[in-house]
Amino acid sequence: QLNVDGKVKTVEFLYDGKTETVETTFLLVNFGKNVLARLLGRPYAPDATHEGSVFKINMLCRKLPALKVSQFSALDGFTGTFHLDEGYEAMKLSHRQASQGQLPDKIPCELYCHTLTDDSILAPDLRQQGYQTLTLFALDTPWRLFEHDNHSLKRHAERKCLEGLNAWLAEPIEESLARNRDGTFCLESKSPVDIESELGHYRGNIFHGALTFPFADSASEAGTWGVETEWPNVFICGASARRGGAVSGIPGHNAAMKVLEILGKI
């Protein structure tokens, strides 16, 4: 629970079964405005543009899958962002199909292999055996498609995404996936409905809301840091700031600069 009235702000939370309270002069908020509204007991009225539309698959691989295009190694292919069906014409079609209430025939997506950059997320024995992680990030999969039958549609979206990936591989991705003790693949899928349920992101929007351009819409916004709220000394330091983004770091920087500005440090 938050109390932002007055000069001193308070944050009340549960820790080890006990209610704790922290007082502060500045409050930096790193969650969506829907969560902020709930904690303050205020209404939240987003429009349709705030709906999330991403689908994620996390995979643990015994090895990186070989590419169908043999002149490029798997290491080269997965070191950067691996794009699938994300051409302009392809995404115009996928967006149109999603807007019509169906999963796209070809779901645009991209993959990241985080362990090629930082393998510390793996246990030492897995690193020694050459294990890698792959994260598939799919687009044009809006929350409303999963709203009524999340389980079934999630399995369907998962299959379509893996089929799209397999079209570019020398062998099916299933041949590279690690398995759990019960024989199932080490694979986890999350739909926008799951993301909302587990993380509180409105309609599964990992960006905390509709994206915004870093331009002032009014004279009153000019010269601000884009992190201000209606409450003094309460600032957005996450993706819902003006020029947010999930991983850019810009909102955190701008919120810190706003505090330093008030303190007269810059």
Structure description:
This protein is α+β, with helices and mostly antiparallel strands and 266 residues long. It folds into two domains: 2-48 and 207-262, no CATH class; 52-204, Polyamine Oxidase, Chain A, domain 2. Helix content is 27%, strand content 18%. The chain is built from eight helices and ten strands. It is globular, with a radius of gyration of 22 Å. The model has no long low-confidence stretch (mean pLDDT 94).
Task: Give the overall silhouette.
Answer: globular
Q: Please, what is the oligomeric state? A: single chain
* Overall mean confidence score, pLDDT: 94
With strands numbered from the N-terminus, the spatial order across the biggest sheet is 6-7-8-5-9
What count of structural domains? 2
> Which regions have little confidence, pLDDT < 50, spanning 5+ residues?
none
Distance between the terminal alpha carbons, to the nearest Å?
A: 32 Å
The main pleated sheet reads as: 5 strands, antiparallel
Portion in helices? 25-40%
CATH topology description of the largest domain: Polyamine Oxidase, Chain A, domain 2
Query: Briefly, what CATH class of the largest domain?
Result: Alpha Beta
Number of helices: 8
Share of residues in strands: 15-25%
CATH architecture term of the largest domain: Alpha-Beta Complex
What is the H/E order?
Answer: EEEEHEHEHEHEHHEHEH
